[in-house]
What we know:
Elements: H1 9-16, H2 20-27, H3 35-47, H4 54-61, E1 66-71, H5 78-91, E2 96-101, H6 106-118, E3 123-126, H7 139-142, E4 147-150, E5 159-163, H8 165-178, E6 184-189, H9 194-209, E7 219-222, H10 230-237, E8 245-249, H11 252-263, E9 273-278, E10 291-294, H12 297-312, E11 330-333, E12 336-338
Parallel strand pairs: 1-2, 1-3, 3-4, 4-5, 5-11, 6-7, 6-8, 8-9, 9-10
Antiparallel strand pairs: 10-12
Helix pairs in contact: 1-2, 1-3, 2-3, 5-12, 8-9, 10-11
GO molecular function: DNA-binding transcription factor activity; transcription cis-regulatory region binding
Domain HTH lacI-type: 7-61
Protein name: LacI family transcriptional regulator
Amino acid sequence: MSKTKRVSVRDVAEAAGVTIGSVSRVLNGGRYVSAELKAKVLAAAERLQYQPHAGARSLRMGRSQAIGCMVSDIENPLYAGFVAAVEAHVGQHGYTLLLANSHHSRRREAEILDMFERRGLDGAVVTTSFNWDAQQPNPYSKSSLPLVMLDRAAPVACDQVLMAHREGIDQAVRYLHSLGHRRIALFTAGEGLRPTDERVAGYREAHARLGLDVDPQLLRLAAIPGVSGAEDMHALLALASPPTALIALGSRLLSGALQAARLAGRRVPDDLSVVAISSAPLLELADPPLTYVHFNLQQAGRAAAQLLLDRLDGERRAEPEDGQPPVCRSVEIEMELVVRRSCAPPAAT
Length: 349
């Protein structure tokens, strides 16, 4: 049986009418490449259905062409868009993504970082469930891998992608206030972590600017996103002055709270206005359509992937020089309030 001959760099060079070195510069992302040369080579490569040999390229470049991605809970649907965006973006540059789930475990986070390093991965995009002490040895400070951290106070000098939670919650509180709401509950998760700290800060600051007192009973902070918000909502609805509006993380916190409200005979938005903190795909089946603070994790995933690719391509200084810390970058993703049909003025009492 005859075996189909693999298309080589030489074949692409002949088809494009250029040298082998020119093809290599284009395919390896060389800087000194004209637009005309790049177009010629890519057109020839596509016509011949050229596929680079990953093993040879890795040996030549001293890289595995693999990137790690660690999330705290793969069952959390908010991570789906983030991981998909990271994988798609690094895949366009010839990298494979290795996904790992830490299950909100300190020990597991340390094991995953160690595994990424032992397997020779080129870098990793990570998130953590904990506030590691940056002044003490921790798994992140021990790792030699280039890291990009998602939405956490980083325990080591590294690039970061941060979500603008404070501004997002501020928009939600001001919008509900404009409708006449004064008793606004906030359900969020990850107490002590940056996202919750920023949401609570935005909530408090918006109340202060609007001349409203913050009732501590209306602030409900769960340990992790997987906790149901049903029990907290039951407790709030039993208050002498229950909330007329809810801002909630779009996880089981939100679904549990909505279920509890329904069981108590509260209708959305007639009796309870609701603003979710979520991404659009997770809200498609909601009835009525929920107003939400857009949690754009797809954009965050692309930004995280690009930060890591830039680091690997040497566009930023990766190693400290003269005792100075590495030059780290931070990208902030804006959060936007999207108004739909789950909010209305509070019912007359």
